[in-house]
Design brief:
Number of helices of chain A: 2
Distance between the termini of chain B: 57 Å
Largest sheet of chain B: 10 strands, mixed
Shape of chain B: globular
Number of strands of chain B: 20
Number of helices of chain B: 9
Oligomer: heterodimer
Order of helices and strands of chain B: HEEHHEHHHEEHEEEEEEEEEEHEEHEEE
Order of helices and strands of chain A: HEEEEEHEEE
Strand content of chain A: 35-45%
Strand content of chain B: 25-35%
């Protein structure tokens, strides 16, 4: 059997590239938020991809929480409660960023392709 | 042993390498959904968020129903201003006569008496009247703050836990202004009971998170629990921390409950020394296996302030603590530094518990 030819080397390079990109796409976290997770009392967590601009409304016990979604980020536009805690959190852009609206019993959190945390302490 | 001709080695390596790479590609594609279930519901006056491992192994409806019922009973019994066992005990304590302590409240009183003594009165649940005076005994806290003369009179001879005389199950209040508020202790005990209940329901691995304070039950064999610690001054993550079995993480912060009064932020952690909201520390975080101690210690360290928090941590037997000062800088114990992974570049300072002065600065 003869030694490697240039075609063999190309196959090896392509194979490594395929493996690397597969892991990158599947497990890659980076600093980019991929989806918004809405955790609300009495409901299963809801996932919204951060792929296009839109506004969503979440009904809660104290009223409506309005959320603005843009590519790669989301923010609480308005939520019931006199202190404006949810709104003051600002844009949620990095995986793990979160905003809380206790009057409406909900937590908004953005995360990467894989959730970084099992639970958030605050 | 025959020696292969040199020209065949690369080809042999290639034959070995390609199947390995193929397996790696398949393993990368094999990731399914999350390995945990989430269950979120309203209880104990806050949002309770359960993380259960492994996914798909539990009766979520049963768990939610049982947990809600148990936390509801504790919430009613220990509520600081709504009618319940604690409200009844407060009425009887104020009357000054002998009475039998409600069984649900007795463990809190006993624990609070020990903690108040240990902290020289910095942690003082007998000062419920002071908390009420600042407008925090209502669902939406509001001003005005109490008048200076009122504060002065209350703090001239403040009620303490030692003013509750106990003789077995009988007790008597020895101070007319004594009013119990277990805001810095009840959630810790509630989490401890919640974990017992989950274990009775057959759950082996879980995190119970009540309004941000949490405790773990067991630890999955495959990996530690991954917890994000939120920055008290924003929406981001300050640090990540891996927890093992039976560890509780509690924080007390100026961002939790409060209101603005004439440009000043009035928060719910009141310093018994000044009678005013504590100053200097924005949040105090404590990691310990006893959730009630972690709860009370977080409040105590925040009240103690930037100079004295390590000394109070030592008194309470806490060696894993982190505080964020009002200017956003971070101080923590060496033991806590070895546990957390900061998620952004920040200046932090290691403090020895027991030391009154800063020791080391990094990075």
């Amino acid at each position: 059997m003869r030694g490697l030819r240039w075609g063999d080397a190309l196959v090896v390079v392509l194979a490594f590239a395929l493996v690397g990109s597969a892991f990158g796409l599947t497990y890659g976290r980076g600093d980019t938020a991929a989806e918004l997770v809405v955790i609300q009392a009495g409901a299963a967590p809801r996932h919204y991809p951060l792929d296009a601009s839109r506004t969503i409304a979440i009904d809660g016990v104290a009223g409506v929480t309005t959320i603005r979604i843009e590519p790669g980020r989301a923010r609480c536009l308005h939520s019931p409660g006199s202190q404006g805690i949810c709104e003051r959190a600002g844009w949620l852009e990095r995986p793990g960023d979160m905003a809380v609206s206790l009057p409406n019993r909900l937590v908004l959190q953005v995360q990467g392709p894989v959730a970084d945390f099992d639970s958030m302490h605050f | 042993m025959t020696r292969r001709p040199p020209s065949s080695r690369p080809a042999a390596i290639l034959r070995l390498l390609l199947p390995v790479l193929l397996l790696l590609v398949l393993s990368a594609c094999g990731r399914g959904g999350p390995d945990t279930d989430r269950l979120t519901f309203q209880a104990f006056g806050t949002l309770v968020d359960l993380t259960l491992y492994p996914a798909g192994a539990h009766d979520l409806t049963l768990i939610e129903s049982e947990m809600s019922a148990a936390l509801g009973i504790m919430h009613t019994a220990w509520h600081a201003w709504e009618p319940g066992s604690l409200g009844l005990a407060n009425q009887l304590l104020a009357n000054g006569g002998d009475f039998y302590a409600p069984p649900s409240v007795l463990p809190l009183i006993e624990r609070a008496q020990a903690l108040e003594q240990l902290t020289d009165g910095l942690f003082n649940p007998a000062l419920g009247r002071l908390i009420a005076g600042w407008g925090f005994h209502q669902d939406e806290p509001s001003g005005p703050p109490p008048p200076a003369e009122w504060l002065e009179a209350l703090l001239a001879d403040p009620p303490r836990m030692a003013h509750i005389e106990r003789d077995g199950l009988r007790m008597r209040g020895r101070h007319p202004a004594l009013q119990l508020d277990f805001g810095g202790l009840a959630k810790g005990l509630a989490l401890a009971h919640s974990l017992d209940l989950l274990a009775e329901l057959g759950v082996e691995y879980a995190i119970v998170n009540a309004g941000g304070d949490l405790m773990t039950l067991g630890q999955p064999a495959a990996r530690p629990w991954r917890i994000g610690v939120r920055d008290p001054r924003g929406a981001g993550v300050l640090a990540g921390i891996h927890l093992g079995a039976g560890e509780a993480l509690f924080s007390s912060g100026d961002y939790e409950r409060g209101y603005d009064w004439q440009g000043e932020r009035i928060h719910h952690v009141i310093d018994p020394r000044s009678g005013r909201p504590s100053r200097g520390i924005a949040s105090a975080t404590v990691l310990h296996e006893d959730p009630a101690l972690a709860d009370a210690a977080a409040t105590t360290l925040m009240i103690a302030g930037p100079e004295q928090w390590p000394a109070y941590a030592q008194r309470l037997g806490i060696d894993q603590a982190l505080v964020v000062l009002e200017d956003g800088s971070v101080e923590l114990t060496a033991a806590m530094r070895s546990r957390v992974e900061f998620r952004r570049d920040l200046a932090y300072r290691i403090r020895d518990t027991g030391d009154m002065a800063p020791r080391e600065t990094g990075p």
